[in-house]
Amino acid sequence: MYKYIKVEKEGFKCNVTLTRSEKRNAFTPTMVNEIDYAFRQINDDGDIKVVIIRAEGPVFCAGMDLKTFEDPTLDVINPHIVNKNISLGEVFDSLLKPSVAILEGNVIAGGFLIILGCTYVFGSREIKFRLPELELGIFPFQVMASLLKVMSEKQVLQLCLDTGYFGTERALDLGIIDGFLEDGKAEEVINSFAEKDEKALKTGIYAMRRLDSIAPDERFSFLKNVLDELKRSR
To answer: Which of 58, 98, 175, 209 has its CA at 20 to 30 Å from residue 149's CA atom?
Structure first.
Protein backbone atom coordinates (compact mmCIF):
# COMPACT_ATOMS: atom_id res chain seq x y z
CA MET A 1 0.00 0.00 0.00
CA TYR A 2 2.74 2.48 0.98
CA LYS A 3 6.12 3.19 -0.61
CA TYR A 4 7.81 5.33 2.05
CA ILE A 5 5.96 4.74 5.32
CA LYS A 6 4.67 1.84 7.39
CA VAL A 7 1.36 2.01 9.27
CA GLU A 8 0.65 -0.49 12.06
CA LYS A 9 -2.44 -0.44 14.25
CA GLU A 10 -2.06 -1.88 17.73
CA GLY A 11 -5.23 -1.58 19.80
CA PHE A 12 -5.75 2.07 20.70
CA LYS A 13 -2.35 2.96 19.21
CA CYS A 14 -1.22 3.46 15.63
CA ASN A 15 2.46 3.51 14.64
CA VAL A 16 3.42 5.53 11.56
CA THR A 17 7.05 4.86 10.64
CA LEU A 18 9.18 6.63 8.02
CA THR A 19 10.92 3.89 6.01
CA ARG A 20 13.10 5.77 3.50
CA SER A 21 16.21 5.25 5.60
CA GLU A 22 18.52 4.90 2.56
CA LYS A 23 17.78 8.59 1.87
CA ARG A 24 17.85 9.59 5.55
CA ASN A 25 14.03 9.66 5.47
CA ALA A 26 14.04 12.84 3.37
CA PHE A 27 10.45 13.36 2.31
CA THR A 28 9.19 13.45 -1.27
CA PRO A 29 5.78 14.55 -2.59
CA THR A 30 4.69 10.91 -2.50
CA MET A 31 5.76 10.48 1.13
CA VAL A 32 3.88 13.65 2.13
CA ASN A 33 0.74 12.36 0.42
CA GLU A 34 1.13 8.91 1.96
CA ILE A 35 1.25 10.47 5.43
CA ASP A 36 -1.78 12.59 4.54
CA TYR A 37 -3.70 9.51 3.40
CA ALA A 38 -2.73 7.58 6.54
CA PHE A 39 -3.81 10.46 8.77
CA ARG A 40 -7.21 10.68 7.06
CA GLN A 41 -7.72 6.96 7.73
CA ILE A 42 -6.62 7.43 11.34
CA ASN A 43 -8.99 10.38 11.83
CA ASP A 44 -11.90 8.17 10.74
CA ASP A 45 -10.91 5.19 12.91
CA GLY A 46 -12.78 5.35 16.21
CA ASP A 47 -10.47 2.79 17.82
CA ILE A 48 -7.28 4.85 17.44
CA LYS A 49 -6.62 7.27 20.29
CA VAL A 50 -2.94 8.11 19.83
CA VAL A 51 -0.47 8.10 16.92
CA ILE A 52 3.22 7.30 17.39
CA ILE A 53 5.61 8.71 14.77
CA ARG A 54 8.88 6.81 14.35
CA ALA A 55 11.63 6.46 11.75
CA GLU A 56 13.88 3.67 10.56
CA GLY A 57 17.64 4.20 10.30
CA PRO A 58 20.13 6.54 12.00
CA VAL A 59 18.44 9.80 10.87
CA PHE A 60 14.86 10.56 11.89
CA CYS A 61 14.34 12.92 8.94
CA ALA A 62 16.74 14.99 6.83
CA GLY A 63 13.98 17.27 5.56
CA MET A 64 12.76 17.76 2.02
CA ASP A 65 14.23 15.79 -0.88
CA LEU A 66 14.68 18.92 -2.99
CA LYS A 67 15.37 17.03 -6.22
CA THR A 68 12.03 15.22 -6.18
CA PHE A 69 10.13 18.47 -5.58
CA GLU A 70 11.98 20.20 -8.44
CA ASP A 71 11.61 17.20 -10.77
CA PRO A 72 8.62 14.98 -9.83
CA THR A 73 9.78 12.30 -12.29
CA LEU A 74 12.49 11.41 -9.76
CA ASP A 75 9.85 10.48 -7.19
CA VAL A 76 8.27 7.02 -6.93
CA ILE A 77 4.55 7.44 -7.52
CA ASN A 78 2.11 5.49 -5.37
CA PRO A 79 -0.71 4.41 -7.72
CA HIS A 80 -3.09 3.94 -4.78
CA ILE A 81 -2.89 7.57 -3.63
CA VAL A 82 -3.57 10.80 -5.52
CA ASN A 83 -0.70 13.26 -5.11
CA LYS A 84 -1.95 16.67 -3.97
CA ASN A 85 0.14 19.82 -3.72
CA ILE A 86 0.20 20.03 0.07
CA SER A 87 2.88 20.86 2.63
CA LEU A 88 3.95 18.51 5.40
CA GLY A 89 3.00 21.17 7.95
CA GLU A 90 -0.57 21.19 6.62
CA VAL A 91 -0.69 17.41 6.81
CA PHE A 92 0.24 17.35 10.49
CA ASP A 93 -2.25 20.12 11.23
CA SER A 94 -4.95 17.87 9.75
CA LEU A 95 -4.33 15.04 12.24
CA LEU A 96 -7.12 15.04 14.84
CA LYS A 97 -5.61 12.53 17.25
CA PRO A 98 -2.86 13.11 19.86
CA SER A 99 0.57 12.25 18.45
CA VAL A 100 3.90 11.29 19.98
CA ALA A 101 7.18 11.58 18.06
CA ILE A 102 9.90 9.11 19.08
CA LEU A 103 13.30 10.46 18.01
CA GLU A 104 16.18 7.98 17.82
CA GLY A 105 18.06 9.86 15.10
CA ASN A 106 18.96 13.40 14.10
CA VAL A 107 16.33 15.88 12.92
CA ILE A 108 17.40 18.16 10.08
CA ALA A 109 15.73 20.97 8.10
CA GLY A 110 12.13 20.11 7.14
CA GLY A 111 12.17 17.21 9.59
CA PHE A 112 11.21 19.88 12.12
CA LEU A 113 7.78 20.05 10.43
CA ILE A 114 7.10 16.51 11.62
CA ILE A 115 8.16 16.86 15.23
CA LEU A 116 6.66 20.34 15.70
CA GLY A 117 3.39 18.98 14.34
CA CYS A 118 3.24 16.38 17.12
CA THR A 119 1.56 16.78 20.49
CA TYR A 120 4.53 15.27 22.36
CA VAL A 121 8.16 14.77 21.33
CA PHE A 122 10.66 12.52 23.10
CA GLY A 123 14.23 12.06 21.94
CA SER A 124 17.30 10.03 22.76
CA ARG A 125 19.81 12.20 24.62
CA GLU A 126 22.55 11.85 22.00
CA ILE A 127 20.61 13.04 18.94
CA LYS A 128 21.18 16.41 17.27
CA PHE A 129 19.07 19.04 15.52
CA ARG A 130 19.99 21.36 12.66
CA LEU A 131 18.52 23.95 10.28
CA PRO A 132 21.13 24.18 7.47
CA GLU A 133 19.00 25.95 4.85
CA LEU A 134 21.01 29.19 4.77
CA GLU A 135 24.09 27.22 3.72
CA LEU A 136 22.08 26.03 0.70
CA GLY A 137 21.07 29.56 -0.28
CA ILE A 138 17.50 29.19 0.96
CA PHE A 139 15.67 29.77 4.25
CA PRO A 140 13.58 27.49 6.52
CA PHE A 141 10.37 29.30 5.61
CA GLN A 142 7.82 26.58 6.44
CA VAL A 143 9.66 25.53 9.58
CA MET A 144 9.34 29.11 10.88
CA ALA A 145 5.56 28.76 11.07
CA SER A 146 5.89 25.58 13.10
CA LEU A 147 8.58 26.99 15.39
CA LEU A 148 6.33 29.93 16.27
CA LYS A 149 3.98 27.45 17.95
CA VAL A 150 6.53 26.76 20.68
CA MET A 151 8.85 29.78 20.99
CA SER A 152 9.12 33.54 20.57
CA GLU A 153 9.72 35.27 17.24
CA LYS A 154 13.21 36.29 18.37
CA GLN A 155 14.11 32.71 19.28
CA VAL A 156 12.76 31.48 15.93
CA LEU A 157 14.88 33.93 13.96
CA GLN A 158 18.02 33.14 15.95
CA LEU A 159 17.50 29.41 15.42
CA CYS A 160 16.97 29.86 11.67
CA LEU A 161 20.15 31.96 11.40
CA ASP A 162 22.30 29.44 13.28
CA THR A 163 23.06 26.62 10.83
CA GLY A 164 25.02 24.46 13.27
CA TYR A 165 23.93 21.38 15.16
CA PHE A 166 22.47 21.69 18.65
CA GLY A 167 21.65 19.06 21.23
CA THR A 168 18.67 17.82 23.16
CA GLU A 169 19.22 20.02 26.21
CA ARG A 170 18.78 23.14 24.08
CA ALA A 171 15.87 21.52 22.25
CA LEU A 172 14.22 20.87 25.61
CA ASP A 173 14.79 24.47 26.75
CA LEU A 174 13.26 25.79 23.51
CA GLY A 175 10.20 23.56 23.79
CA ILE A 176 11.06 21.51 20.69
CA ILE A 177 11.10 18.27 22.68
CA ASP A 178 9.27 17.35 25.88
CA GLY A 179 11.67 14.85 27.39
CA PHE A 180 14.19 12.07 26.91
CA LEU A 181 13.47 8.49 25.88
CA GLU A 182 15.85 7.22 28.54
CA ASP A 183 13.54 8.54 31.28
CA GLY A 184 10.64 6.29 30.21
CA LYS A 185 8.11 9.11 30.06
CA ALA A 186 7.16 8.44 26.42
CA GLU A 187 5.53 5.08 27.11
CA GLU A 188 3.75 6.54 30.11
CA VAL A 189 2.27 9.30 27.94
CA ILE A 190 1.27 6.86 25.18
CA ASN A 191 -0.42 4.44 27.58
CA SER A 192 -2.29 7.28 29.30
CA PHE A 193 -4.65 7.42 26.31
CA ALA A 194 -5.88 3.84 26.65
CA GLU A 195 -8.97 4.74 28.68
CA LYS A 196 -9.63 8.20 27.24
CA ASP A 197 -12.63 8.93 25.05
CA GLU A 198 -11.68 8.95 21.35
CA LYS A 199 -14.49 11.26 20.26
CA ALA A 200 -13.68 13.80 22.98
CA LEU A 201 -9.98 13.72 22.01
CA LYS A 202 -10.76 14.23 18.34
CA THR A 203 -13.30 17.00 18.96
CA GLY A 204 -10.99 18.84 21.34
CA ILE A 205 -8.11 18.86 18.85
CA TYR A 206 -10.46 19.94 16.05
CA ALA A 207 -11.66 22.88 18.17
CA MET A 208 -8.13 23.90 19.11
CA ARG A 209 -7.06 23.91 15.45
CA ARG A 210 -10.02 26.10 14.48
CA LEU A 211 -9.54 28.76 17.17
CA ASP A 212 -6.92 30.80 15.29
CA SER A 213 -9.36 31.38 12.43
CA ILE A 214 -12.17 32.58 14.71
CA ALA A 215 -12.47 36.15 15.97
CA PRO A 216 -11.68 36.44 19.71
CA ASP A 217 -15.18 37.69 20.54
CA GLU A 218 -16.71 34.63 18.82
CA ARG A 219 -14.54 31.92 20.35
CA PHE A 220 -16.62 31.13 23.43
CA SER A 221 -19.73 30.83 21.28
CA PHE A 222 -17.89 28.53 18.87
CA LEU A 223 -16.58 26.33 21.68
CA LYS A 224 -20.03 26.12 23.29
CA ASN A 225 -21.46 24.94 19.98
CA VAL A 226 -18.72 22.31 19.67
CA LEU A 227 -19.42 21.10 23.21
CA ASP A 228 -23.17 20.95 22.56
CA GLU A 229 -22.58 18.95 19.38
CA LEU A 230 -20.30 16.53 21.23
CA LYS A 231 -22.94 15.97 23.90
CA ARG A 232 -25.66 15.43 21.29
CA SER A 233 -23.53 12.76 19.61
CA ARG A 234 -23.62 10.57 22.74
So the answer is: 58
